[in-house]
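TICKET: design request
STATUS: open
ATTACHED STRUCTURE:
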């Protein structure tokens, strides 16, 4: 049962107007992290990472995969969002509610994210920007657990200190050409041409 409460203590992340339009399409730094590195830094399996990228939950903002043999490249902010998703899942929040929360966080810059604490009562995720909002939610009986995104930043930074990165502007290494694929492509082109 969801109690009515004063909206001042925190902002419910799925309310209209809370999600700023658009997603920042550029990376937030000069380096990116490959999928395997992202998995180690966040503590998830590659299978989870791949599923979340394919379903649009957390898409890499530096470079997405563009076919077989290409590598996704995640920004630091992407890794923080991945960590938040993992923590929300570990706490039992439904994937539907996690999607709503992540949509609300997507357009925020790294500095904005650092000041946010997510509080959930198990069904709804609330965004708190000050200690007073957190206390108000807890006093209202709404809070069950909280995630300080600034704490996730520190964890990710610590994990990344010994993991590899690469320049965000580097081109993807060329994939070795498959002679059968080239021959089939040539046949198709000849067929289309005439």
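STATUS: resolved
RESOLUTION: sequence designed for all positions
ATTACHED SEQUENCE:
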């Amino acid at each position: 049962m969801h109690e009515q409460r004063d909206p001042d203590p925190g902002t419910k992340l799925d309310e209209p107007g809370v999600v700023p339009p658009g997603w920042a399409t550029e990376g937030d730094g000069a380096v990116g992290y490959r999928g395997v590195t992202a998995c180690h830094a966040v503590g998830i399996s590659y299978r989870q990472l791949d599923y979340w990228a394919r379903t649009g939950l957390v898409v890499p903002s530096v470079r997405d995969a563009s076919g077989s043999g290409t590598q996704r490249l995640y920004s630091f902010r992407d890794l923080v969002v991945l960590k938040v998703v993992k923590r929300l899942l570990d706490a039992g929040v439904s994937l539907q509610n996690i999607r709503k929360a992540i949509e609300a966080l997507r357009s925020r810059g790294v500095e904005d994210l650092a000041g946010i604490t997510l509080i959930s009562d198990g069904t709804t995720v609330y965004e708190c920007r000050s200690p007073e909002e957190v206390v108000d939610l807890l006093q209202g009986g709404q809070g069950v657990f909280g995630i300080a995104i600034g704490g996730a930043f520190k964890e990710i930074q610590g994990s990344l200190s010994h993991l590899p990165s690469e320049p965000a502007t580097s081109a993807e290494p060329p994939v070795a050409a498959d002679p059968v694929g080239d021959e089939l492509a040539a046949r198709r082109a000849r067929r289309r041409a005439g």
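CLOSING REMARK: Residues 76-90 form the longest helix (15 residues). Strands lie at 11-12, 31-34, 73-74, 117-120, 125-128, 145-148, 166-167.
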